Amino acid sequence: MKKLNNSEKEQFKNWFDQIENIDNFKSIIHELYVNYRYSYRNILSIVRYNYKYIDIDQIVDILKEFDVKRCSRGEDCKSPVGDLQTRNNFTNRAESVDGKRLECIYCNRFYTNFKRANKEKQNHILEFQKIKSPNQQDEFLVNLYKSKEYNYKYLSAISLRHIDKIVSLVNYRALSTRLVNVGRAHINNAS
Ligand SMILES: [Zn+2]
């Protein structure tokens, strides 16, 4: 962890000095993890300026209550919501300090898929990752599907979305296009 400077130390010490109840304490831990992006161990050392007898399990337990966990890939995390996620997005790993793997399931899937993919698929994976807006991502997938060269499974692999989501996206798009066309036909007939 980057060393805390004196004003940071002072600031956090003040926070802890002003604690009135256990919920205040918990929300400071949450704040340090979520907004300041400190690791469990960083937080432990900060807390220990004021509370000598806290241990890492207590820090982890508080964050479990908030159901937050940060993916170790940080800004490169492939999760659609970013690196800060529900603990459900991490596979269990008994021997780790919080009982979870460091990397989220999206990153895990991404790197596994990427390694196995041929060049064309790797390019699609990278292209998809570059698109930030969910609507444009949908568009990209629907267009690949329309090109008739790629199936649901392929689109699921490059987008990391569950195959059911791909099926419903593609079919819903097809349905709405059809309905728009039907609507146009009605208008044309009427005029
Ligand atoms: Zn991740």
Instruction: Point out poorly predicted stretches.
Output: none
Distance between the termini: 71 Å
Instruction: Count up the helices.
Output: 9
The fraction of residues assigned to DSSP E strands is under 5%
Q: What does the average pLDDT come to?
A: 91
Strand elements, count: 2
Compounds present? zinc ion
Task: Please give a structural write-up.
With 191 residues, the protein is mostly helical. It has two domains: 6-103, no CATH class; 117-190, no CATH class. It is built from nine helices and two strands, in the order ααααββααααα. The chain has helices spanning 6-17, 22-34, 40-47, 56-66, 105-116, 119-130, 134-146, 152-159, 163-190; strands at residues 69-70, 84-85. A two-stranded antiparallel ribbon has the order 1-2. Helix 6 crosses helix 8 (152-159), helix 7 (134-146) crosses helix 9 (163-190) and helix 8 (152-159) crosses helix 9 (163-190). The radius of gyration is 23 Å and the shape is elongated. The N and C termini lie far apart (71 Å). The model has no long low-confidence stretch (mean pLDDT 91). Residues 71, 73, 77-79, 83, 103-104, 106-107 line the site of zinc ion. Zinc ion (ZN) is lined by residues 71, 73, 77-79, 83, 103-104, 106-107.
Describe the secondary-structure layout.
Elements: H1 6-17, H2 22-34, H3 40-47, H4 56-66, E1 69-70, E2 84-85, H5 105-116, H6 119-130, H7 134-146, H8 152-159, H9 163-190
Antiparallel strand pairs: 1-2
Helix pairs in contact: 2-4, 6-8, 7-9, 8-9
The structure holds zinc ion.
